[in-house]
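Example 474, ligand flavin-adenine dinucleotide.
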Amino acid sequence: MAKQFDVLVVGGGPGGYVAAIRAAQLGFSTACAESNPYADPKGEPRLGGTCLNVGCIPSKALLHTSHLFAESQHAFEAQGIKVSGEVSIDVPTMIARKAKVVEQLTQGIKGLFKKNKVTFLAGHGSFVGQVEGGWQLKVGEEEVIAKHVIVATGSTARHLPGIPVDNKLVCDNIGALEIDAVPQRLGLIGSGVIGLEMGSVWKRLGAQVTILEAMDSFLGAADQDIAKEALKLFTKQGLDIKLSVKVGQVSVGEKSVTVEYETKDGAQTAEFDRLIVSVGRVPNTAGLNAEAVGLKIDERGFIDVDAHNLTNLPNVWAVGDVVRGPMLAHKAMEEGVAVAETIAGQKGHTNFDTIPWVIYTSPEIAWVGKTEQALKAEGVEYRVGKIPFMANGRALGTGDASGFVKMLACAKTDRILGVHIIGANASELIGEAVVTMEFAGASEDLARICHAHPTLSEVVHEAALAVDKRPLHF
Ligand code: FAD
Ligand code: NAI
């Protein structure tokens, strides 16, 4: 006999597990199916999806360890801290600590499921058909019927033809987070978010890092002022970022990988001890039996959804990386909550204009809203306020005063249209901009708000003042 639920969520990543918790909070009998091949100590698939297992959380754990190591190499001396003997990195301990953080968080979601009465179903979910009472799916060997289905199957790394990923010598995000010794020469294909974050980790730990990027511009999605500053700072840190690269033959040897590529300067060859392929991600829709029920997938492989995340099928919804929009954990969570609330008859909503982006390099990069180049292209008249962290006492006190805050506001209404930050703690500072923009705030609103002193947030305050050409400390 089939198990029956009001809501079945397929996929237990940030989009799926949050949708399941919210649906249960709203009083629906809810189940969440997860087929992650990485088992927990009980042999069950781990919840948390890409984000907790092989994405956001483990990458940030490694970024933190490598940042501490880099500080010991470059920042201690200037502040009078002397270390007797050499500071060294024990990579297996770093990886084990990361695994412990992942374990704690993924198990934590099982605890949240219990607390919120979400039924966890271990197994791969796929559609069988529409039946009386809802949709029938198979989860592992079990039959499940649910009135509403939320597909949250996420994404996996895109691979390139002719570059076999074994997650030993040639890695995608999964292998990149398990490297067990500092590679002397690390190559990365793609200078996007993963390329920069993983490149930073291993550069800080002593690797010689080369990033091969196909595009002729760097960080095309970011405000180009920020991208220019980032390229300058990352190059100074020793990341060798090559643009306009056409990767050719890749030959995998016993201990190294040889990459042939072309740049404007002609044909080149490089040998790496490890190669990371970070050229974007593809949505997971294979195996859902989508065709059998007529679930519409668009030409790029994403499940087609409307503004409320409803698919072309009644009561079948989809959220997160498997649908259009940025592939970010917080976007997936927002959509998960919005769908659960829409099912409950509320006004669930995701505001795509205020989704923040963060790149956890050093300095961090964060932005929300429109870039200056987008405003120019749209013919919007705007005013700019730009303040460097060099003008901030707290930043100077910490010894890291690189970067700036740039605020863009409508020339007519003063409404904030975009905030772009490169600097320490940009990931936290951007929150203030997100809140102000969510409330349709003006630069003057921020300028008139009292900011604690001494804090880095004063640079955001000064940038707001600078929009009106009246900064006080610059
Ligand atoms: P996923 O997290 O991919 O989860 C989908 C889940 O569904 C998986 O667990 C999968 O096993 C399961 N599944 C798939 N098919 C089925 C099926 N048929 N039946 C049952 N289960 C199924 N985002 C950020 O916002 N901040 C970051 O710092 C960040 N860092 C990242 C670092 C890396 C290295 C990577 C790779 C990604 C990072 N991301 C980050 C992106 C973030 O991980 C994703 O946007 C987010 O995980 C998407 O959530 P999701 O729920 O849509 O999908
Ligand atoms: P990405 O889309 O950020 O960057 C991919 C890069 O590879 C681009 O610059 C692209 O031009 C380049 N590229 C594509 N094909 C290429 C080729 N054949 N040769 C050379 N370069 C090529 O993708 P990435 O870094 O793989 O990350 C995937 C996604 O995961 C991100 O878009 C983001 O949504 C998410 N993510 C988010 C993080 C965060 O929020 N801090 C951290 C890591 C990942």
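Summary: The mean pLDDT is 97.
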